[in-house]
Amino acid sequence: MLFQTSRPDRALWDCWLFPHEDRYHLFYQQKRAGERDTTAVGHAVSTDLVRWADVEPAYVKGEGDAWDAGPLRTGTTVRRGDRFYLVNGAAQGGVDKLGVSVSDDLLHWTKYPGNPVSAPDPRWYEADPATGPLDNVAWRDPCILPDGDGYIAYLCARRATGPVSGRGTVATLRSPDLLRWEAGPPLDVPACFVMLEVPDVFELDGRWFLLHSTTPRFGGRLQTSDPDLVAGTHVLWAERRDGPYTRPPRDVLIGSRMELTSAWVCRTVATPFGRLAYYLNAYPQPFGVGAPRGSLGLPKLVAADDRGLRLRYLPLLDPFRGDPLVPPLAAAPCDPRRERPGVWAIGDGAAEGRVAIGTDALALRGEAPDFMLIATVTVLAGRGAGLGFRLDDRGIGLGVILDVEAGSVGVVELARVACGVAWRPLAQRQVPLRPDTPLSLRVIALRDVVEVLLDDDLLLSVVAEGRAGGGLALVADDAHVRVADLRVWPLRVA
Questions:
Q1: Angstrom distance (rounded) from CA 302 to CA 280
Q2: 61-71, pLDDT tens digit by residue?
Q3: What is each CA distance from 39 to 36, 44, 157, 209, 457, in whole angstroms?
Q4: How high does pLDDT run on average in the chain?
């Protein structure tokens, strides 16, 4: 949504964010477009978390027989004293290893001559690629925290023993200086994952949380509190940093089904706003093949409750809103030759629609391909309500559907057909909706990504390419619906 590398021959994947002074530094896996392997650690800089500028890569993979001549892995950036340390990895001979680079200014980096600084320890962890399911030994994606006078790192790794599909774990390493590392036993986590990628460990409101990303594409069947979110960032929690970690009732934070069409790999960082979450929007890949490609999503605030974690809206885009569309609830002229399946009425700042059978959309005056929209939506009776947007002159575009009967909120492809409107889901999330209950909806469409929030909690961040229309509409699906307090702002992000 917000950032992709400016080079058309490069693609972005896993990211990590490092705030320093009045700027934010984004480091990311940089790939050659159309290829799977990471060849560099890209680097971009921002002052507002919205507009980003590419700078020179922080790290470029080695050549020949160098330990880092293979695919590069996700890393992290840490400050110690007046120096900065970039700890990332590379796969040598099918085995991930860690290395360190050092900088005085975050822009110019020198590889530590003692690299690699850590490799899988066979006392606790899988160390032979022949025994793993993916022909690669995981020892990557460090999350580094202060630990007494030194540091502790948490890594994606696999146990040396146990069922193949349940060996995924989080390894621990300790260091006095970020250069010398000693492995320790794994964290106490549930033995039900092939891989716990990009672990992120932090304390919030008296509990410890462990985020990690995983997908059924690794081969293990995943069950979560929401069956529509299995490929994404999962949540574990504990009373102590060392665990034991268990699943909270809301055990998945963001994600999609196996297809990876939505948010992927969420990490967090402490900022003046509070604990900030940032994530990757994964662009669709054919099942079983395809080169990873993504963009940075819009950062959110992290909130904890008795069910787990939520991502809350952060008004970073407010300075980029244009003048609101006026009037916000004016219907566009209707083709008098078409018989509508529904009846609509607009008055007193609200619109009501009634559809006995099928789905109908009321087109609105005004256009905005990139926009922020807020509204109070109520399904007074029947099935569902929604909004259409990025509609072209044929009535083809996208929509958001709040389905009370199914208990779900979805981003859909939408098209006007002979008897009203037809739609099919791109991504959805299970939400306990109730009839005759007002819902506070916020929709953000910017570039290739659509975000849906209820009560300013993020539900979906979905990649939806190829829709260039700007039309807006209200939708009723076998229902009597009411839409009030509708406001739409065009977004102008250079």
A1: 16
A2: 999 999 999 99
A3: 9, 16, 22, 31, 36
A4: 93
